[in-house]
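chain below, 427 aa
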Amino acid sequence: AGFLMQYFAVGVIYGGLPGTVYGFFLGYLNVPGYVYATAGVVTTLPWSFKFFFGLMNDCLPVNGYSRKPYMVFGWALCCATLVVLNRVGLPDPYWCVGADGNYLKHQEPCNPSAASAGGEFLRLSISEYAMLMCLAALGYVIADVAADGSTALIAFCMNGKLYNGTFDWSLSFNDVMGIFAVPAGLMVPLSWFLVVEEKVQPGERKSLRSYLKEVWGLITSKAFFFVIMFQFWEPFVGRISTPAGGLVKSEWAGVKNLQNQLFSLVALFVFSFGLWQVKKHFLNTSWRMMLLGTSVLINVMDATLAFLTIFDVVRNQYFYLGESILDEIPAAANFVIGTFIVVEMADKGNEGLTYGLMTTVANLGTPFARAVGNQIFGLFPANLSDAANYVADTQDFRQTVATSFAVSYLFSFLSLIFLFLLLTCKM
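prediction:
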């Protein structure tokens, strides 16, 4: 029961916390596009620390327990940071609000410093909001491995007009953080009393030296070394992307928070269907060929919808979000391949170490890609992160945005050169 509750609580936080980024950062605060893109990366950054948490679990038991104390600490940290976010006084919205509750985007903003302004209780910059969300994420990563959940809460209860939604009412960002703090707080005592774990005997404890020796043995294996190089370089290069994506989605496609979250739910079912299709039809396909095919397919579909939206051929939120659902089928193939890579690499007894090390390396590439992308696209002649440029919607700016998307796709295709590092195995 204790472990089942872990997964339920993780689902609430893991599904809900990143889901607030779109409406709060891009709608309410109207942060620059590069900040919005970076905030999404920051909230998932703790996954890069998975290996180090595993090392602490195995080598540094607390009072004889390797798991429960870290679960308790993780949930306590998660709950504390969510309570802080619940207590933070929010600034007024960036845009002026009309009589009908909608933002007046063609007028001068009423609070141009919304992204950095503080509230009545605390004064936090936008980076500090993101870092507190990162700490909350850090807590649930320490506590357990993820599942999805809470998307419906964000969809229906944070769909107010102030958060890129359509309803006349809405829970505030503070309210949602408070709701998430409840299951996190409950998991502190539940993790200690309901999770069954045998104490580690003095002679059974893994020493740091033996653990690192095992890690070194894995890394110096030629096959494993090539695989972790692929796991790092492929996302590092392939995810160098334009910061314009979020603003194209909100300003030109007109995607509302409810539809954004509901399509995320549908995408989960499509992802499951994709897993079933891969299992049924593609288990004998080369990993390299499958990744090549799915990557090309994803980029072609994404480019088609993006350019039609950018040049105002079709600007419709359902049309634009359709691509996110179609992407789930090739994404499922990529997920299956990643899982089989772990199975192929792991030996008996080191499955957890192998998974933790590969997960850490795979998640390290994305923050680097975001940092490099911000620098590259910051050199463009027009500011891709300024919402005012999307409201003005000039032909020259459309061309600049299209060029930035083309550069993003170029990096995505360039990342395919690292496929030679991947095993040629079939499933």
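The domain at 207-427 is CATH 1.20.1250.20 (Growth Hormone; Chain: A;). Residues 118-123, 140-149 have pLDDT under 50 and may be disordered.
thats it, cya
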